[in-house]
Amino acid sequence: xxxxxxxxxxxxxxxVFKNDIxxxxxxxxxxxxxxxxxxxxxxxxxxxADAVIVGRKLDRLTQTAKELSAATGRTCIPAQADVRQPKMxxxxxxxxxxxxxxxxxxxxxxxxxxxxPISGLSENAFKTVMEIDTLGxxxxxxxxxxxxRQSKGSYIHVSATLHYKATPYQVHVSSxxxxxxxxxxxxAVEEGPHGVRSNVIAPGPIGGTEGMQRLSNIADGNSSRxxxxxxxxxxxxxxxxxxxxxxxASYITGQxxxxxxxxxxxxxxxxxxxxxxxxxxxxQKMIQGKL
Length: 291
Prior knowledge:
NADP; Rossmann fold; NAD(P)-bd_dom_sf; single chain; 12% strand; 2,4-dienoyl-CoA reductase (NADPH) activity; globular; SDR_fam; 291 residues
């Protein structure tokens, strides 16, 4: 029996796309202080854009902004805001306009997640995830759309693949991300005549991220059994971001781009089933995530 020998290559976007394709463009990114959204922001900046990263923790945002500016030679500034608070988001947008004069690209990436069965999920916990992911995306759209219309710009919403199949312990984020996908599709139709595009990137498990560490056991498995021989990398998502914001994707809108190396087609519940739903306490030690 032949062993799995192929491992998908991992390229930096600057080896594929010209370095100046986003020269003069301005990116507004919620959730840009860390993880996947930080990587998406860095990739866009490496191609000439300046950026504003938005989040609740100003100290982390400030440090990240300094690091991104140093790494790319572009300008990145922090803007503290809770996406659940429209007034704070509007202030972040105002700060962006005062500094840069416009907004071309928006990444809606603020999110929250943890593991819990419906029977053990409080109304407040469910509501919190819906507010951060879904309402936060809506609020970001509302605050930025006048400027994105003016620039004929583009949105990318960071979603997930959890709601494509029933995923136990993930009803809150599955509901929230399904709504985000719907928001993006409607936005694409309503704003297309204004010259605005809207797409979704749905990452699968991405190595080196907090979500991977807290919510998945794939990293502990055998990568040779995965379709492309490895788990996803933040650069994989970043490369999709550069493409979707580029002129090469000018006729792509209202779509969901899954970045998971076909892993969704092989996904199964990571805890013993039905034991995990009949007796949640028996798998408590396996659950590390919390809000």
